[in-house]
C-alpha cells in the first residue's frame, strides 16, 4: 500500500450487501432492478478501490501547518453518471443553492468536521486538515452511499425502498468516520475487526447526529439511517444501537439480523464475515455506556471510544475482547476508577464480551 502513509483505505457502504441481496430477489422488478444494479456498481467500485490500493492514489492537498483548523468542503454533482467526482457545484464558503441534496451533503460534511474538532480537537478526518469531498446524484436509482478511501458518494435511492442518502446526517457521518478509522487504527474489514470498523462508524455517526440536534443520550433515538427508508417499508432505520435486530421487519427486506449480545453472534462468510451484522454487539455496548453515564454521549462515552480509536494500541486485527480491554484502559486512564470505568465494565459484561 502506497497511499496515506501506509494506511489501507477500504470501500465501505452504508447499506449492507445482505440487504441488497434480499431486495434483488424481489418479484417486483421496480424493487429488484435498482438493487441488482447497485450490487453491480458496488462490486465495480470495490474493485477500483483495490486497484488504487495497489497503484497508489494522488496525495490530497492539505493546508499549511500555520492555518487555523477549518473545513475545506467541495460538493460535486455526478448528474446520474458514475464518473467521479463529477462537476463541482458548491465550494467552501459558497452560499446554498436550490438543490437540497447538495445543501444537505455540504452541511453533513460540516457537522462531521465540527464534532471532530470541537469534541476531540481533531482537524478533519486525518487530523491534518484533509479536504472533505462529496459527490451527489450518483448513478440512477443507486441504493447506497459509500466512502471509497478518498471521498463520499451519495445515491438518490430508488424512491421505493430507499430515499435520498443525504437525508440522515448520521449516514454522512458514518461514512466519513470510515476515513478516520482509515487514518488511525486501520481496522481490517473482515470478521470481528471489520465489525468493529462498522461499529465505530455507527457510534460516531450517532454522535454527530446527536451533536447536531443538541440531544443528550436520553433524548437520542440511537437509530442509524432514520428517515432513509421509504414509506412502504416496515421499519424505522437501517440499524438500532439501542435494540439491535429491531430496525426493520419487512416483507421485502426481511428482518434486521443484528445481534445485541454474543449469545446471538452470527457466523457467516457473507458481508465480509458479517461486518454489518455483528457490529450490533459493540454498538449496543456503546449505547449502554452512554446511557449509563447520561448527558452528552460525545463527551465521556465518546471520548473513551475516540481514545481507543486514535491511541495507537488498537491492532488492525483486534477482536471484540481486545477492543473491550482497551476501552477499560482508556476509561481508567482518563477518568480513574469512577462511574465511567464502571459503566464500561458493565456494558461489555451485558453484551457477553469478556475483555482480553
Compact overview of the structure:
The chain has 356 residues and is of the alpha+beta class.
What series of H and E elements makes up the topology? EHHEEHEEEHHEEEEHHHHH
Radius of gyration from the alpha-carbon trace, in angstroms: 19 Å
What portion of residues is helical? 40-55%
Number of helices: 10
Strand content: 5-15%
Counting helices, strands and paired strands, the structural category is alpha+beta
Q: Give the termini separation.
A: 30 Å
Low-confidence stretches: 1-7, 52-60
**Lateral strand order in the biggest sheet:** 1-5-6-4-2-3
The biggest beta sheet is recorded as:
6 strands, mixed
Keywords, separated by commas or semicolons:
356 residues; alpha+beta; 42% helix
Structure description:
- It is a single chain.
- Helix content is 42%, strand content 9%.
- The longest helix is centred in the N-terminal third of the chain and has 27 residues, at 29-55.
- The protein is globular.
- Residues 1-7 and 52-60 have low confidence and may be disordered.
- It has ten helices and ten strands.
- It is of the alpha+beta class.
- A hairpin with a 4-residue loop joins strand 5 and strand 6 (152-154).
- Helix 5 (191-213) runs parallel beside helix 7 (280-293) and helix 8 (300-310) crosses helix 9.
Would you spell out the secondary-structure blueprint of this structure?
Elements lengths: L11 E2 L3 H8 L4 H27 L17 E5 L9 E5 L8 H21 L11 E5 L8 E3 L4 E3 L14 H15 L7 H23 L9 E2 L14 E2 L8 E2 L3 E2 L15 H4 L5 H14 L6 H11 L9 H16 L3 H12 L6
Parallel strand pairs: 2-4, 4-6
Antiparallel strand pairs: 1-5, 2-3, 5-6, 7-8, 9-10
Helix pairs in contact: 1-2, 3-4, 4-5, 5-7, 7-8, 7-10, 8-9, 9-10
Amino acid at each position: 500500500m502506497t497511499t496515506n502513509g501506509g494506511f489501507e483505505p477500504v470501500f465501505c457502504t452504508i447499506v449492507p450487501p445482505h440487504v441488497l441481496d434480499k431486495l434483488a430477489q424481489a418479484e417486483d422488478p421496480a424493487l429488484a432492478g435498482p438493487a441488482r444494479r447497485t450490487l453491480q456498481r458496488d462490486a465495480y467500485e470495490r474493485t477500483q478501490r483495490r486497484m488504487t490500493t495497489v497503484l497508489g492514489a494522488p496525495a490530497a492537498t492539505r493546508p499549511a501547518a500555520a492555518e487555523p483548523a477549518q473545513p475545506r468542503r467541495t460538493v460535486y454533482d455526478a448528474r446520474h453518471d458514475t464518473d467521479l467526482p463529477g462537476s463541482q457545484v458548491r465550494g467552501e464558503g459558497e452560499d446554498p443553492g436550490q438543490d437540497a441534496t447538495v445543501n444537505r451533503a455540504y452541511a453533513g460534511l460540516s457537522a462531521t468536521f465540527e464534532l471532530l474538532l470541537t469534541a476531540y480537537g481533531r482537524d478533519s478526518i486525518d487530523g491534518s486538515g484533509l479536504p472533505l469531498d462529496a459527490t451527489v446524484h450518483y448513478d440512477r436509482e443507486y441504493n447506497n452511499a459509500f466512502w471509497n478511501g478518498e471521498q463520499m458518494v451519495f445515491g438518490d435511492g430508488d424512491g421505493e425502498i430507499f430515499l435520498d442518502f443525504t437525508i440522515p446526517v448520521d449516514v454522512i457521518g458514518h461514512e466519513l468516520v470510515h476515513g478516520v478509522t482509515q487514518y488511525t487504527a486501520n481496522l481490517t474489514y473482515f470478521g470481528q475487526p471489520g465489525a468493529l470498523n462498522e461499529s465505530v462508524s455507527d457510534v460516531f455517526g450517532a454522535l454527530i447526529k446527536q451533536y447536531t440536534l443538541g440531544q443528550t443520550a436520553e433524548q437520542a433515538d440511537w437509530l442509524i439511517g432514520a428517515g432513509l427508508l421509504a414509506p412502504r417499508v416496515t421499519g424505522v432505520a437501517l440499524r438500532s444501537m439501542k435494540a439491535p435486530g429491531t430496525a426493520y421487519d419487512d416483507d421485502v427486506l426481511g428482518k434486521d439480523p443484528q445481534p445485541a449480545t454474543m449469545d446471538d453472534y452470527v457466523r457467516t462468510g457473507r458481508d465480509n464475515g458479517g461486518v454489518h451484522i455483528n457490529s450490533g454487539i459493540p454498538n449496543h455496548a456503546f449505547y449502554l455506556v452512554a446511557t449509563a453515564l447520561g448527558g452528552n454521549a460525545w463527551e465521556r462515552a465518546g471520548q473513551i471510544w475516540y481514545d481507543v480509536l486514535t491511541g495507537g494500541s488498537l491492532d488492525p486485527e483486534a477482536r471484540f475482547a481486545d477492543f473491550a480491554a482497551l476501552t477499560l484502559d482508556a476509561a481508567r486512564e482518563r477518568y480513574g476508577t469512577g462511574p465511567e470505568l464502571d459503566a464500561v465494565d458493565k456494558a461489555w459484561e451485558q453484551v457477553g464480551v469478556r475483555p482480553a
